[in-house]
Amino acid sequence: MSTPSKPYAGLKASLLTQHGKESIICPQLADSNGLEVLHVEGYDTDKLGSFTRDIPRYGSQLDAARKKARVGMELSGSILGIASEGAFDNDPYTGMLPWNYELVILIDDTRDIELIGFFGGEAQSASRQVSNWNELNTLLSEAQFTTHQLVVRPDDEYHLECRKGIRDIASLREAFDWAISLSKSGNVFVENDLRAHTNPTRMANILKATQDLSRKMNSLCPECRSPGFWVTERQKGLPCSHCDAPTNLPVANIWSCVKCKFKKEEVKSGPLKADPSKCQYCNP
Ligand SMILES: [Zn+2]
Ligand SMILES: [Zn+2]
């Protein structure tokens, strides 16, 4: 839609993270955007929320990402800041599968804009309450242990003490014995560790969200040349080929600029009529 360009080439941005996300975010934005991303430490991002329920998240997923980006910019004196934040829920289709939403934000104070990359995909997030070692063993393949790490705690998911980052059988055995000795109910709660560096499935989803951000950074508004010209709306209503009623299939994408008010409609290519199997009147 817009001319290919790299408006962030040769610039520097901060990235505040402590869970190894720099290993995928930095090379992606260097390769695709020419942006040099500097890893910033010195602030415990778990203070803004942790997946082990010990610290509630700071606001929404976007609030937390924005806050991390701002802290990183303050610590480094940078005018461009990047941060990422994940969330877990059930999948939006059947509601049966664990789902992971990842968001990567770029705050650009030179242009006074925010660009946000998203990705939603299957999560590796298994959990079970067990009362003995054999029961625990049946969870291990479902939890993709040992490529994915585990968290163990006494009793149930709400117990305040836990052992995180368990990645081999010897430490798992030791953590299980520790948890059962503290348990009041005789149970131990075991689950996947959801921190990025302990969960490669999540790391792959963060990469996809970074790639989404990367494309938006290179997409310029035809009107004001700002980065971040992107599809913000999909218009539905492709007419049924049999009865002509509007269906839920898309007819056009609406592209919008994050900086000015420019919008552009892009009519979808492909068939001009929908198959009657997609029509709520012909195939209810
Ligand atoms: Zn119809
Ligand atoms: Zn614009």
How would you explain this protein's 3D organization?
- The chain is α+β, with helices and mostly antiparallel strands.
- It folds into 3 domains: about 10-125 and about 195-225, Maf protein (Alpha-Beta Complex), CATH 3.90.950; about 125-190, Dna Ligase, domain 1 (2-Layer Sandwich); about 230-280, no CATH class.
- It has 5 helices and 12 strands.
- It has helices spanning about 20-35, 60-75, 135-140, 170-180, 200-215, and strands spanning about 10-15, 35-40, 80-90, 100-110, 115-120, 125-130, 150-155, 165, 190, 230-235, 250-255, 265.
- The strands form 3 sheets. The protein has a 5-stranded mixed sheet, sandwiched between helices.
- Helix 1 (about 20-35) packs parallel to helix 5 (about 200-215).
- The radius of gyration is 23 Å and the shape is flat.
- The relative contact order is 0.14.
- One zinc ion binds near residues 221, 223 and 224.
CATH C-level class of the largest domain is Alpha Beta
Sheet having the most strands: 5 strands, mixed
In angstroms, what is the radius of gyration?
23 Å
As for the number of domains, it is: 3
The CATH architecture of the largest domain can be given as Alpha-Beta Complex
Q: Which of globular, elongated, flat, extended, rod-shaped describes the shape?
A: flat
Task: Tell me which ligands are bound.
Answer: zinc ion
* Helix-strand topology string: EHEHEEEEHEEHEHEEE
Distance between the termini: 36 Å
Low-confidence stretches: none
Count of DSSP H/I helices: 5
- Average pLDDT value? 93
Number of strands: 12
Beta-strand portion reads 25-35%
Helix content: 10-25%
State the CATH topology of the largest domain. Answer: Maf protein
The main sheet orders its strands as: 2-1-3-4-5
* Helix/strand class: alpha+beta
